[in-house]
């Protein structure tokens, strides 16, 4: 009883893996490929952050390990504060006022009385800052003010930072807030890049506010002041503040730092492995499949079929692939799957001609003529007698075409013709060029993606040469 084609394929793969142990370069390529595959599969667990998430640190942040060098040791780090009720030191001034903890939210209730009056609640939080001056900081104050039969009452929320030397800077002022104004979904914010905030504090619009305020080392105080005006009456005013968010953006972050948007470069490098493998493998499979079908039909059928298919093949073969892909990408759009399709559809022609020549030599062989004589169909002859003879060429072509597809995808991304929503190594290099990383000599941004592309392409090339030697009897050497 004859063995099934699937079993033959499994046995062939087992034999190839066994033979591969004797080829050191091919084994090295296989190990590198296994490593890349592992990284691609477990990218969400290896990458410390979402590759597209911006503002993880300041723009152009250095890698954290730069702190080993004295020049970078005191660069600012990320300081993130999410302050709730239990974090503050609270002081109250005024009557008919209560400050409560509602699920760790600040809840202030001011009751109206016989006379109109002002009252206030002060919240202070201290933190130690021991680094160089940062470029940027920001904060958010979500709050909700409700009036209950207290017409004319209002609240006003201010936020200050107090330096170790005692200087006070007002970062935020809500102005009077009256009936039912909610900021829970769109909190009050302040940002060191705000020109109006710089002018309000007496600085130039071109100054870095972080460098001006956090230019000392020591204990800083973050102060929140809630001023309430209670109109005369029998109602009350309620202020709820869930948390206060305050952040200083660091200039040291992650294994490879950040780009111009504050995205983690190491996470982009990890996720780029997926894109390169997907593009390379899928484009190679589609390309080899098309070339195999065209070559088989052209070589086996001959005549008009052969002339028509070879005319199409030769026409595409002499067309410039890269300019054609660029033109199609510009007019149709940027998509990862479009890239895969274009790379595959424009790179099968050489394989088709090779398979055609091989099939033409096989169709006139004695065992094919014998199969025809006993009434075997063309499909049976192709799958039973011709296709198995082509398997070494197919395996080698599958592996050897992947590096070209990977490099072509990286080229398109580097030219900003790749999918902008997908993190890839070529896009990292494009972003580096666009953001001036080459002029800033940010080698930790440029070298890793280039090295990753080189190693992955080299792995497939080493593996392909080993397979060529294993499957091609003419190249075998005595071991």
Write a structural description:
By secondary structure, the protein is an alpha+beta fold. It folds into two domains: 5-53 and 264-475, MetI-like fold (Orthogonal Bundle), CATH 1.10.3720; 78-248, Sandwich (Jelly Rolls). It contains 14 helices and 14 strands. It has helices spanning 5-20, 24-41, 43-46, 195-200, 209-213, 265-301, 303-317, 321-332, 336-345, 349-362, 366-373, 378-414, 425-434, 443-471, and strands spanning 79-83, 89-93, 97-102, 105-111, 117-129, 137-141, 144-148, 154-162, 168-173, 181-182, 188-191, 218-230, 236-241, 244-248. The protein has a five-stranded antiparallel sheet with strand order 2-5-12-8-9, with no helix packed on it. It has a five-stranded antiparallel sheet with strand order 3-4-13-7-10, with no helix packed on it. Strand 3 (97-102) and strand 4 (105-111) form a beta hairpin. It is elongated and about 115 Å long. 31% of the residues are buried. The model is unreliable at 181-185 (pLDDT under 50).
SSE arrangement:
Layout lengths: L4 H16 L3 H18 L1 H4 L32 E5 L5 E5 L3 E6 L2 E7 L5 E13 L7 E5 L2 E5 L5 E9 L5 E6 L7 E2 L5 E4 L3 H6 L8 H5 L4 E13 L5 E6 L2 E5 L16 H37 L1 H15 L3 H12 L3 H10 L3 H14 L3 H8 L4 H37 L10 H10 L8 H29 L8
Antiparallel strand pairs: 1-14, 2-5, 3-4, 4-13, 5-12, 6-11, 6-14, 7-10, 7-13, 8-9, 8-12
Helix pairs in contact: 2-6, 2-14, 6-7, 6-9, 6-10, 6-12, 6-14, 7-10, 8-9, 9-12, 10-12, 11-12, 12-13, 12-14, 13-14
